[in-house]
Design brief:
heterodimer; A: two-stranded antiparallel ribbon; 2 strands; globular; B: two-stranded antiparallel sheet; 73% helix
Amino acid sequence: MGGLAYNWNDYVLALPITLLALFSIGILLIDLMIPPETKWANAVTALIGVVFSAAGVYKIQLMLDQRHSAGTIGMMRTVIMDRFALYFFYLFLAGTAVAILMSIRYMKDEHENHGEYYALMLLSVIGMMCMAAGGDIVLIFIGLELMAISTYVLVGFLRRDRRSNEAALKYLLLGAFSSGIFAYGLSLFYGLTGHTNLIDINRELTRILAHEPHNPVAIIALLTTITGLLFKIAAIPFHQWAPDAYEGAPTSITGFMSVAVKAAGWAMLLRILLWGLYPMRTIWVPMLVFVSIATMTGANFAALTQTNTKRLLAYSSIAHVGYMLLGMVAGSATEFSIDGLKGILVYLLVYTFMNLGAFGVITSLRHRNVIGDELDDLNGLYARAPVEAVLMLIFLLSLAGIPPLAGFWGKYFIFFSLIESGHYALAALGVLYSVFGLYYYLKMANAMFMSQPEGGRLPVSWSMRIALAVTGFATVFIGIMPEKFIDIVNWTLGMPQGATTARLFVR
Amino acid sequence: MYNHILSIILFTPLVGAIILLFVPKENEDAIRWIANIFALAGFLVSLPLVPWFWAQASSPERFKFVEGAANNWIPTIGAGYYLGIDGISFLLIMLTTLLGWVSILSSWTAIENRVKEYYVWFLILQTGMLGVFMGLDFFLFFVFWEAMLVPMYLLIGIWGGPRKLYAAIKFFLYTLAGSVLMLLGILFLYFHHHTVTGVYTFSIPALYETAPKIYSDPAYGPTIATLLFLSFFFAFAIKVPMFPFHTWLPDAHVEAPTAGSVILAGILLKMGTYGFIRFSLPFFPDVITHTKVRIWMIVLSIIAIIYGALVSLMQKDMKKLVAYSSVSHLGFCTLGIFALTPLALAGSVLQQFNHGISTGALFLIVGILYERRHTREIAEYGGISNVMPIYATITMIMFLSSMGLPLLNGFIGEFTILQGTFMENWRWGAWAVPGVVLAAAYLLWLYQRVFFGTVTNPKNEKLHDLTPREVFTFVPLLIMAFWIGLAPKPFFQILEQPVNQLVQNVRNPQAGSAVNAVLQAPGSEEVSTTSTENLRATKEKN
């Protein structure tokens, strides 16, 4: 691969990232010039930035399609721009766009309507893109830090709210700590293999493990790396930061974190485990089995007793990580299951919409003197805002995995991949925990539909209506007509119609 | 219309629900009228099915009025909008449309707050239930099976009694716990079908071909097949409910609004027995005939019959009494299914229909008293026949029908089940017979305490008798009760072909779907003479 020179290809590959960077700097500049009443212009600028960036992603997609290739490697082999990366790019941008729509009224009510907020969101998306397309552990790590630091600030954005400050501090300390562990693991891999490129690491590891299947350095490196990865997706026992950060953060940011940031964590985990550390599958699968059982158990039990909706949804999102991890476990000892991977990708797609929708409804409960994140604040929501209540019911049932809503499809593919590869006990455990999950979702539904309302009609802003309409429509539509979306995921995995093996690896 | 009759029946209630969404919620009378019109329309559009189905009841193909295809919905995974019915589902569909209409009619004055929502959810529920009985695609079936829990949960949770939240959540969680395991079972069959044939499909007729082979397949074997049977068993046993899984039922029935109880008892419970007949029997014939599973099913059914009846006897709350009587009656139905004779199976299906009619009526009866007095304590009443004579008469007929008195529907069903069971193993039948006697005991005792004597409670003196609307809700049920009681032959003729085919497939799976040995359908005259004597003899003994 050619030297240190960049070529035209590289500029195209960097297009979505460059555009986002330009727009985020632009927002910072424009923010200085506009009067306080027109601060909504920042959000509009950010939305335009997202659209432009999506156009950039589409440009790359067209380029790949023209060449009939599943992906390309660029930027001196640090970037793997394949369909997998494009899929995540679209996912991040969609999640961000909805989160921006949710933020406009909310940040105004919180009197924190500053341009930095949107600029930081766009910056963190740049980090996510680096993580999803990273073919080199250095780029992945830089992307991770860019995303994480932007998110630390966003979590603490409500300066006057002590919960927000506390959450930001906790998140910062634990996040920095986990990044350290993660970096340590990556450096060990570098020391062991002499490469930072994932594909090279993969090759070298295969060679090393062939001589010595239980190379101690490799195992320590794997342990620390995987700890860092699990930290970022908030799997038990590395989840402690999540409920606190989710509760304290501005609600719109909680929604953003629970979908886009989490999806980025997953993209990184999949990149590293499936591209770089795939030769060690026999070692990481048992770890993931343990973590996934612990995650489903711990999160589902912890969620039962929550009275704060943001904390409850935080635990629910941890529980969902547990189900998704099962998709990594599916398959034989040495071969991962393409259906499991498909399950994870579908899950992340539907999760983006249903979870953002649920957070959107909770965000809209914030007005004047009501913080709106306690379970009691949902009381009688049906009488106060019937459309929102019904949408919330749809989101909650979808989270619980009731067909024909989108959330069912995530679980469907995960459990199918488990059945397919003979993991019957894990599948049974997973479905039983999903019944467990229904209980706490119904607690929220009960409050909305079966309790007496407190307060009058709930005003809902236009931007929030658009956000809820988009997420609600997606949740129902993907649920009833999943064909198109399954095709997209198949395309992502490079699966021709009906084929069972994917051309996942770009050589 | 002929080719799309099932879709029309399926979606008429849903169309009503969508139209209701656009009616302002203050306009309660308009909402009531529209809901009732669509409920009635739902029943009326199902009526043409009766002559049409009759015309081809004995045609050899297994499913009639097939609509759609096995993979036209989500081709990637092989799921389709694929409908079709046989005699068994035909009866249950007719029951659903009839009871749906009756229960919506009965809600006119019972529901006073949040009227619009109530009817919207009710109509959606109706579509969900119909879909369960029509789906020939396992995936479609599962979607309806799960989706219909949501409106039922809301009906109990919003319009229910004092412990409605507890009952609603318990109902939802209990049934969901069973059905998620069934989902795994479905996925296994789906995957197995692919390994055998190379095709991914959820089509039930296609799975009928491959699923029975799991038992004798060396790669899976009896253990896996039994586990699969169990994964389905939990879903259906919870729904029926069979003995150790019945605890959700009294809560849900007691707390649900009257119409909700009618639907719960009349139709939701039938989904469990329907599941056994449609899936468990043809999918796992070897598990049923070659392992101890069958005897367990029989034992659980007999326990349910006796236990349900004994518990009913001791209830102080009328609705709870009726709820537990359902456990007992459904025990007869499962006994009939697992007795595995065509006669018992036909009796079981007919008894499911009967139970929908009789118990539905019983819940309406309890509901009428509750609406007037807001209590269901038996001790609060006495001598009601003096103040409400029409009501007392209708109640008497329905009680007699429920306890299985000859000339009424319950008798035909229970007797055929017992007769079929005796043919298989007389001990099973002998154990079940006390259930019939106990049913007479708890119902007659209830009748005596509530209706006979003088009016003991001054609050009951001013009760007004049934309004014309209320009488009208009972008319279709009374007609059905007498029709089945007096002339059950057409019902057995409809059931003859599917039942024979089913039993033959289970008993002798290798023979495939060839049904040549058609068992003689139980003629009505013959049944009623012999059975009357038998039953009389049993009753005199006690």
